[in-house]
Amino acid sequence: MSASFPRIDPPKMGEPYLLTPGPLTTSYPVKQAMLRDFGSWDDDFRAMTARLRAGLLELIEDREGAFDCVPMQGSGTFAVESMLGSFIAPDGKVLVLSNGAYGKRTAEIMRYLGRAHMVIDKGDYMPPRGDEVAQALAADPAITDVVLVHCETSSGILNPVEEISEAVYRAGRRLFIDSMSAFGAIDLKVSDIRYEALVSSANKCIEGVPGFGFVLARKSLLAASRGNCHSLSLDLVAQWEAMEKTGQWRFTPPTHVVAAFLAALAAHRAEGGVAARGARYQRNRDVMVAGMRALGFETLLKERWLSPIIVTFFCPADPAFSFTKFYALMKARGFIIYPGKLTVVDSFRIGCIGQMDEYVMRDVVAAARDALQEMGVQDAAPPAAALAERARLAA
Ligand SMILES: Cc1ncc(COP(=O)(O)O)c(C=O)c1O
């Protein structure tokens, strides 16, 4: 393991690390940026909003200036709903690619919006593949748009966005990407992957605090989508038009969150951008997964589908193991982990994103070892049913 990376400072207030998919552990400078108040109408804040939009556009390397960035108040789901409600025409039809909770939520949003849609449901964690998308699009000419979750955070699977984009555009349809938990750490350069718009939020891989999401979308699409949206507050086109005209958000902006986000964006740039951020998360994952496997834990996913964002582990079969106890013991050692979201077998998740490095991940593994010992767990191996479930994925 390289020692050339300086250690990241631990949380200054002594709070536990958040090994979760967000809100996540943020740096002290990010928190400090929130100590000033800003007037939402003031030129200083308008300049901050402009910097935020430009800084995010830099990350997709849109050299032709075809895209724009529109931030939207609220959590990530608000931004997803804003993107879908604003861009899917009322007479459009959406193919939702679902392999976990966030794919399901996309379908739920379509149901709320009353937009026609069909779902390819791959269950808890099987990836949607390009050939099945091509088949579905060939079978139903009414489908206009496809929505994909980039990293399905409920299992941690990194879905194959390139092959899906190819299938979608070969069939002459449009792709929308929920890259909530991946954007900023995994490349989505417009020169590499074709899509109409992506959505993410402040408190994921850019390492800001929660309070707004953002959509990076083709300007031609924004210009052509006026009047689609079902909602006043979530109308992305109206937000875009107002920002273009006045430099302001339409309704009260999360001023402190924007200030924190600019500090987070500057740190992202200083670290080396998307590639370096992704590489740090990958080291976090590799150290943590290797250590957990050495303790006997098994990952849900095989290497190929493991994201550097969050990893799902099966709960051990040993009757001495209890997730509630494990959670409490990990928290007492300074680490907040995350429960699993699988429907078939018991699991838990450990996130790799946020202000932490491989040294922290070694401490996480040591804490897990101590917690197992304290519970009297002899063997962290999962039940046979869990391994059988995993074999389905490999098939
Ligand atoms: C892929 C994905 N989509 C959507 C969301 C929803 O974001 P929020 O919980 O901020 O509304 C999340 C949250 O983690 C996510 O990981």
Please render the helix and strand layout as text.
Layout: E1 17-18, H1 28-32, H2 43-58, E2 67-73, H3 76-87, E3 93-98, H4 101-113, E4 116-121, H5 130-139, E5 145-149, E6 151-152, E7 157-158, H6 161-170, E8 174-178, E9 197-201, E10 212-218, H7 219-224, H8 236-246, H9 255-271, H10 273-294, E11 310-314, H11 323-332, E12 335-336, E13 338-339, E14 347-351, H12 358-375, H13 384-394
Parallel strand pairs: 1-12, 3-4, 3-5, 5-8, 8-9
Antiparallel strand pairs: 2-10, 6-7, 9-10, 11-14, 13-14
Helix pairs in contact: 2-9, 3-4, 5-6, 9-10, 10-12, 11-12
Bound molecules: pyridoxal-5'-phosphate (PLP).
Features of the shown structure:
single chain; 395 residues; alpha/beta; 7-stranded mixed beta sheet; 3-stranded antiparallel beta sheet; 13 helices; globular; binds pyridoxal-5'-phosphate
Structural overview:
- The chain is of the alpha/beta class and 395 residues long.
- It contains 13 helices and 14 strands.
- It has helices at 28-32, 43-58, 76-87, 101-113, 130-139, 161-170, 219-224, 236-246, 255-271, 273-294, 323-332, 358-375, 384-394, and strands spanning 17-18, 67-73, 93-98, 116-121, 145-149, 151-152, 157-158, 174-178, 197-201, 212-218, 310-314, 335-336, 338-339, 347-351.
- The strands form four sheets. Strands 2-10-9-8-5-3-4 form a seven-stranded mixed sheet, with helices on both faces.
- The chain is globular.
- The two termini are 33 Å apart.
- The model has no long low-confidence stretch (mean pLDDT 96).
- The site of pyridoxal-5'-phosphate (PLP) has 13 residues, from α3.
- Pyridoxal-5'-phosphate (PLP) binds next to α3.
